[in-house]
Amino acid sequence: MSEIIDGKAFADQLSEKLTKEVAALKSELSLQPCIAVVLVGDDPASHVYVKNKVKRCEQLGIRSIEHRMEESTSQQDLLALIASLNENSDVHGILVQLPVPEHIDDKAVLAAIDPTKDVDGFHVQNMGALAVGEPGMVPCTPLGSLMLLKSVLPELSGKHAVIVGRSNIVGKPMALLLLQQHCTVTIVHSRTIDIEAHCRRADILVAAVGIPHFIKADWVKPGAVVIDVGINRIVEDGKSRLVGDVDFDAVRPKTSAITPVPGGVGPMTIACLMHNTIAAAKAQHQQS
Ligand code: NDP
């Protein structure tokens, strides 16, 4: 029997724990974790993501400061804002919602964020720390995916994990996290020959491709755990809905556990952002 991993319930539980932690920080240390969220431009999806993040912060007692900037904002002005947020000791976390408009170099933006405030975990210093096993900010989606995976498979040592996708924000950090857990890790991508054969060897299959229903039932080893990171909007019979990168209905019977979309990894990403913001606030408080 295959278990559906309830990411929403897991994220709610984590948020409850974090709410208590924020309350304790306020009462014991007079410390209120604070995140600055920067949004440049008019991308409708980004506006929804930022709204959800800010709402979640409020629910947990984390202070949030929103900076909305015009689509025409120059890179120089954005970097100046980041520099001022880096200097502001009341701000513990900085998140620049991606994508930024095309005339702005996102690498330069991410590099400008103080790594100790980089709650998305995208700064090369944090990626490097993850690669060599040093403490640092871990990107939220892979961190949340790992938490869900461990909820059904606490011992990962020796398992063969196959990750479909090699992006800097999901595939690569996920691979590094699973290596830390002593998995044998294979990453496949658009140039991989015979992806299906690699997937069929996976005890743990992580899909982060961005193609609806990409992973088919006959690619999945019986009893595998499948983590579907994909969020794809499709229109069927005139109705729009979200689906993952995994052909869920067909794949589920082959698995021992699987995350649904929506309600799987998605809710964990925001919960882990809050987790990182609180960790950043505590670390900065200790150093002050
Ligand atoms: P990217 O587009 O950055 O990366 C996609 C990866 O998939 C690339 O490595 C690409 O390979 C690979 N790929 C594309 N086509 C194929 C193919 N035909 N065969 C094999 N591999 C292929 O996407 P992200 O990593 O940012 O996101 C992946 C998915 O996860 C998306 O659906 C996104 O919406 C979702 N997502 C969900 C989050 C959440 O909170 N749940 C957060 C972030 C993302 P190559 O490198 O060779 O081009």
Structure description:
The protein folds into two domains: 30-114, Leucine Dehydrogenase, chain A, domain 1 (Rossmann fold); 140-266, NAD(P)-binding Rossmann-like Domain (Rossmann fold, 3-Layer(aba) Sandwich). It is 43% helix and 18% strand. It has ten helices and eleven strands. It has helices at residues 7-29, 44-60, 75-87, 106-112, 124-132, 140-152, 171-180, 195-200, 248-251, 265-287; strands at residues 3-4, 34-40, 63-69, 93-96, 160-164, 184-188, 204-207, 224-228, 232-236, 239-243, 255-258. The protein has a six-stranded parallel β-sheet with strand order 1-11-8-7-5-6. A three-stranded parallel β-sheet has the order 3-2-4, with helices on both faces. The protein has a two-stranded antiparallel sheet with strand order 9-10. α1 packs parallel to α10, α6 (140-152) packs across α7 and α6 (140-152) crosses α10. The longest helix is centred in the N-terminal third of the chain and has 23 residues, at 7-29. It is globular. The model has no long low-confidence stretch (mean pLDDT 97). The structure holds NADPH dihydro-nicotinamide-adenine-dinucleotide phosphate (NDP). Residues 141, 164-167, 169-171, 189-191, 195, 208-211, 229-232, 265-266, 269 line the site of NADPH dihydro-nicotinamide-adenine-dinucleotide phosphate (NDP).
